[in-house]
Design goal:
This protein is mostly beta strands. The protein has no helices and 11 strands.
């Protein structure tokens, strides 16, 4: 099983990034997918989730107006479009998969830094 995040980087406040999570080794189309983030000294927190056919999404209240989670089951890839980024969004962003058997898989993360 592999989950590989990409798309992070350094961006100025107010900027945008689109993260990707490429999955392999399990039935991606049947997995609930989520984005989490962890800033230094903070606990890991769930940012957004999406169900198998993209009909149900969840967003952390503090970010829901600025983020859009999506997935392409044909490409085994999940995305997170992040707009109006702020310094408090600085963190390592990780993707998580939960398969129908409730096994959990995590990626290694991609760093997002919002700074002027």
């Amino acid at each position: 099983v592999h989950l590989v995040e990409s798309g992070g980087g350094l961006v100025q406040p107010g900027g945008s990034l689109k993260l990707s999570c490429a999955a392999s080794g399990f039935a991606f189309s049947r997995a609930i997918m989520s984005w989490y983030r962890q800033a230094p000294g903070n606990e890991r927190e769930r940012v957004a989730s999406i169900n198998t056919d993209s009909t149900i999404t969840y967003y952390r209240e503090t970010v829901k107006a600025r983020l859009l989670i999506s997935r392409d089951n044909a490409k085994n890839t999940m995305y997170l479009q992040m707009d109006e980024l702020q310094p408090e969004d600085t963190a390592v962003y990780l993707c998580k998969a939960v398969d129908p058997g409730r096994s959990e898989y995590w990626g290694q993360g991609t760093q997002v830094t919002v700074s002027s």
